[in-house]
């Protein structure tokens, strides 16, 4: 591990598993959280911002800025899909916590992302846990952003498996397919963690009981909000546990060696029945035709994960909080 912690910005739509990922980041000495940027996804952007501020207050980390992100997609689409049936109407398990005292900073998320990438060129990792609109806006705002940002670690896509919005699409990519396609071919150093990997990382009912019995502040808080998340998984997947999508993606920033990756060009289908589908071109065949796949930068796509190690890391750090 490097001596100085890795600077990260979490682009987030909290969300129960986002809450877990944020707490995990704050409990990870390998990481220094520069800020949270908010986006629609699990809930609308305004509520994402409120929840981000609330979580930082719970954590006693109101020194970390929250920059509010876009309320519309990159193509100005206003018909947004939110997953309140997964996370509760408030995004945090229908606990109806009192509103946070804090306020977001005056900068928009994309402006904040560009500013931090310019302040620390090559050093900032963005962990993107929602639709990629803010990152696409940062690319539009600063043509050098793709090269100045250190890494972009994305929770998104479903490679070689079905999606979770419909058989073709995973929720974050489906939330703004045009933005996702822009980010994948931007030339930035991108790692994509898809459902093919996150569906292997499961927090069981026994794990939840262990968290509840612990003295960890974050562990106890998460147990308070997780009921609806467990019942959603039981109804939708018939499993007695929950997928740790966001925490697993955050762990890719903490310890990338717990995953293996393949490299290729990723494009996103933006129209029709398979809108939001992520397609990985594995470079095994050279095609004769000039197409939308030619001369595009490659990204890394996670294909395996040491799931027990990821779950153990998540559990240890939350219990230790």
Automatic annotation (TrEMBL):
The keyword Nuclease does not apply. One of its GO terms (biological process) is inosine catabolic process. This is Inosine nucleosidase. Its EC number is 3.2.2.2, 3.2.2.3. It catalyses: uridine + H2O = D-ribose + uracil; xanthosine + H2O = D-ribose + xanthine; inosine + H2O = hypoxanthine + D-ribose. GO terms for cellular component: cytosol. Residues 8-311 form the Inosine/uridine-preferring nucleoside hydrolase domain. InterPro entries: Inosine/uridine_hydrolase_dom, IUNH, Ribo_hydro-like.
